[in-house]
Design brief:
The protein is mainly alpha-helical. Helices cover about 65% and strands about 0% of the residues. The protein has 16 helices and no strands.
Length: about 375
């Protein structure tokens, strides 16, 4: 069977996902002890300034061009989005149940009912908080499904639609997320119910990914010299601009971009730095040698994202405290960062057995279709992260 060109597996996309998922693990690790080590705040602010926008851009890049009717689209979204969301949150729920029984001898069913209701409202903060991205992406894709009708009927070019999304959708998102409590009360739903508010902020990044694919921008970056120059400029731009974003941030929150909580700071600097950082990762990925480990992490970024929620729930605190203990009295920023990177790599490596198990025995839980009885090649939904 001939594959649609837009769904061909590109190495640079896998490499970009691999870099992105490393940043997710690193960010979640240092976030757990950010108040204990002031150095962590600067690192966290840098990473969070662009790592999730990068994933929305990549999701737009690999989005299928195939036009689906509404029923087919819903079925696809259910298998590739809803099922993984439920799986990774139920995994945390099971761990929580075992923990409560072992340490308390019992569990409070009302608390678990609250957890279930939280997931039903599309807000996973009580269980696998990291899956907020999959929920938000689901809503972004529903937005695009309906907006695509306008794009096709009006014959709007990808570049024009990208510009329109930033001129129309992004300002709307800024207004709503700045007054999110007001809009939530008006609509009669909780804040970021299935991330309907934050998806407006994420959609322009998604449209950028579509634009890059349709224009073939990444595939035609040119020589390694020009790509290297782009890499240096984008990295320098990100480094010089990320700390300029001084808000406004909500009272009581750290001065860090948290898309999961609809916190973006300065509405001009946020997308500026996010796009610069994303371009850096994309440029870096396009010149990264073909390594099996990068392809492996990129292909399994959805599983890694879900498993990161498990580390956030039970392991990151202890790992971060170990790093603080080992560096106590030394005060070397280089040593602290090095140990944090090593801790991130240790967490990633520990996920390999689970990745192999899920891919082999329960691929349906992450949006994949297992081999049929005739041994046909599995079909992977490439829009998964």
């Amino acid at each position: 069977m001939i594959r649609e060109k837009s769904l061909e597996r590109l190495y640079w996309v896998d490499a970009a996902k691999a870099y992105g998922i490393c940043l997710v693990f690193y960010g979640q690790l240092i976030q757990s002890e950010i108040y204990s080590v002031p150095l962590f705040l600067s690192s966290l602010k840098f990473v969070y300034s662009f790592h999730m926008p990068l994933f929305f851009i990549l999701s737009g890049y690999v989005a299928t061009r195939k036009r689906l009717d509404f029923t087919s689209f819903v079925k696809k979204q259910f298998s590739s989005r809803i099922v993984p969301i439920l799986f990774f949150n139920l995994l945390i729920l099971a761990v929580k149940l075992v923990r409560d029984i072992l340490y308390q001898g019992t569990f409070h069913y009302r608390e678990y009912l609250g957890d279930a209701l939280s997931i039903a409202s599309g807000y996973p903060d009580r269980l696998n908080a990291v899956t907020w991205f999959i929920i938000c992406l689901l809503t972004v894709e529903f937005y695009h499904f309906w907006l695509r009708r306008i794009i096709v009927s009006r014959k709007i070019s990808p570049v024009s639609w990208f510009i329109l999304s930033w001129l129309m959708v992004y300002p709307l998102g800024c207004i709503i997320t700045r007054q999110i409590s007001l809009f939530s009360n008006t609509m009669g739903v909780r804040e970021n119910f299935w991330y309907v508010h934050e998806a407006l902020m994420a959609y322009p990044f998604y449209s950028l990914g579509i634009c890059l694919r349709e224009k073939g921008t990444v595939d035609n970056l040119g020589t390694e010299i020009s790509t290297g120059l782009l890499l240096i400029i984008s990295l320098a731009t990100c480094i010089l601009s990320y700390d300029l974003n001084q808000g406004p941030f909500p009272f009581g929150y750290r001065p860090v971009v948290y898309m999961a909580y609809s916190i973006h700071g300065n509405v001009i600097l946020f997308p500026f730095t996010a796009i610069a950082g994303s371009i850096f990762i994309i440029a870096l990925s396009s010149i990264t040698p073909s390594l099996r480990i990068m392809s492996f992490m990129g292909r399994n970024s959805l599983i890694l994202l879900g498993l990161n929620g498990l580390f956030l729930f039970v392991g990151n605190h202890f790992l971060a405290r170990a790093i603080i203990f080992l560096t106590q009295g030394i005060g070397s920023s280089l040593l602290i960062r090095t140990l944090s990177v090593l801790g991130t790599l240790l967490s990633l490596l520990s996920c390999i057995p689970a990745i192999r198990f899920i891919n082999r025995y329960v691929p349906q839980l992450i949006g994949k279709v297992s081999r049929n009885s005739a041994g046909a090649t599995t079909h992977t939904i490439l829009t998964n992260l």
